[in-house]
Specification:
Layout: H1 2-7, E1 16-18, H2 27-33, H3 43-60, E2 65-69, H4 73-84, E3 90-94, H5 98-109, E4 113-117, H6 127-136, E5 142-148, E6 150-151, E7 156-157, H7 161-169, E8 175-179, E9 198-202, E10 214-218, H8 220-227, H9 238-242, H10 255-271, H11 273-294, E11 301-302, E12 314-318, H12 325-336, E13 338-342, E14 351-355, H13 362-378, H14 387-396, H15 399-405
Parallel strand pairs: 1-13, 3-4, 3-5, 5-8, 8-9
Antiparallel strand pairs: 2-10, 6-7, 9-10, 11-12, 12-14, 13-14
The structure holds pyridoxal-5'-phosphate.
Length: 406
């Protein structure tokens, strides 16, 4: 970033941070995490900590178990794998994109055999292909199915109940593991009702916290599988964690994260989860309407081709052939103080991403969309005008009308 920083003309006002993680941290969370250190065994901290554990269970919609890690989301990915699998076990990964590949690569590095249900990144998996893979595994060598709920690289979200239904229909006993890092706190997720055995979550996306803490929701069934797992593990070992007062953390408890989490949970529950989800949907739909308008004249397009799988937390936008997304991002950043997400893996330069998750409202998303529309002109990228107008027209509607129009 150093070269782009040095070119920056716009230094006053807030940076409009529109990356799909990390995300904007609300002022009240910034204040909360800056409180003085206390002993993590003190009564006052334990009360706050227990409140966080109970509150996060309400967000996950579970009555089962949670383990926390002082690590970014990758740490929780690893915890999910090493705690329930054994070397040589098979993990069935449902391909979504860059993040499903990353989780699969990690499993392979740990000595797990990975089988993949392949998918077109612009549409997501055909559930029938998953059902077929499960049905073919008559010997039940697949020990777990790994799914990314919201593929942050593509803006394609996968409904989880049909995945559970595919497993139930084939009577397959594998554990169902879901990565909710970029969906939790953004759109609906129900661990217990949907029969998810291991849920992977992180701090810096929908939960609006700094990066560096992650967690897993764990079902009784997954905990039973953990008892026979022979994968080497120590810092991430659930059995060791269960022996501690905090039922997590082998070392020092990162107290500042819990000051922040308590405030994050307070904010989410003050607004009400359903209203949080409705707000994400509104801002996402406004973004999609802007992109649809720009797509005229062979302009940029929505990367996701299945409207039933549009993500309400991130939109990936594909550039017209011959135009580089990173040039557009650079103009947005240097001239307009707007930070956008780039394309990941094979999508590098081909897509840019607008994060609309966490602490975000109408004028913030409109500011971002206006910067993109200006940058499309500045860069000479073919497009049709009127994206921001389309977003404004949508957002100006009464909330009930918006729900119907969506
Ligand atoms: C961000 C993200 C990750 C990786 O999390 P880190 O905190 O960067 O380690 C994994 N999966 C998904 C879906 C993500 O969005």
């Amino acid at each position: 970033m150093s070269t782009t920083e040095s070119n920056k003309a716009a230094v006053r006002g807030r940076l409009f941070f529109a990356n799909p993680g990390p995300t904007n941290i609300p002022d009240s969370i910034l204040r909360a995490v800056s409180q003085p250190t206390v002993d993590f065994m003190s009564a006052s901290f334990l009360a706050l900590y227990d409140g966080c554990m109970a509150g996060l269970k309400r967000i996950l919609k579970t009555q089962q178990h949670i383990f926390f890690y002082t690590a970014s989301g990758h740490g929780a990915w690893e915890a999910a794998l090493v705690n329930v699998l054994s070397p040589g076990d098979t993990l069935l990964i449902v391909e979504t994109g860059y993040f499903s590949q990353g989780w699969a690569e990690m499993a392979e590095a740990l000595g797990v055999k990975v089988q993949t249900v392949a998918a077109d990144w612009r549409r997501g998996v055909d559930v029938a292909a998953l059902t077929a893979a499960l049905a073919a595994d008559t010997g039940h060598t697949i020990k777990a199915v790994g799914v990314v709920h919201n593929e942050t690289a593509t803006g394609v979200a996968l409904s989880l109940p049909p995945i559970r239904a595919a497993m139930d229909a084939t009577g397959h006993p594998a554990l169902l593991m879901a990565d909710t890092i970029s969906s939790l706190g953004c759109f609906d997720f129900r661990m217990d009702e949907w029969g998810i055995d291991v849920v992977v979550g992180g701090s810096q996306k929908g939960l609006m916290l700094p990066t560096g803490m992650s967690f897993t929701g764990v079902s009784d069934k997954a905990l039973a599988a953990h008892k026979t797992s022979t994968m080497p593990k120590h810092y991430l070992n659930w059995t060791a964690m269960m022996g501690r007062r905090h039922k997590s953390f082998i070392g020092t408890v990162p107290i500042a994260f819990f000051y922040g989490l308590a405030e994050s949970l307070r904010l989410l529950e003050e607004e009400g989860l359903d209203r949080v989800f409705a707000r994400h949907h509104r801002l996402a739909e406004a973004t999609r309407r802007a992109v649809r308008a720009w797509s005229g004249n062979n302009g940029p397009q929505l990367f996701c081709l299945d409207p039933s799988r549009y993500s309400d937390s991130v939109t990936a936008i594909m550039m017209p052939d011959g135009f580089n997304a990173d040039e557009l991002r650079k103009v947005c950043f240097d001239r307009f103080n707007v930070s956008l997400g780039g394309g990941l893996g094979p999508l590098g330069g081909k897509v840019f991403r607008v994060g609309h998750m966490g602490d975000l409202n109408e004028p913030m998303i409109l500011g971002t969309l206006a910067a993109v529309e200006m940058a499309l002109s500045v860069c000479g990228i073919p497009h049709a005008k009127g994206g921001v107008d389309a977003a404004m027209a949508y957002l100006a509607q009464a909330p009930e009308a918006m729900a119907e129009a969506a």
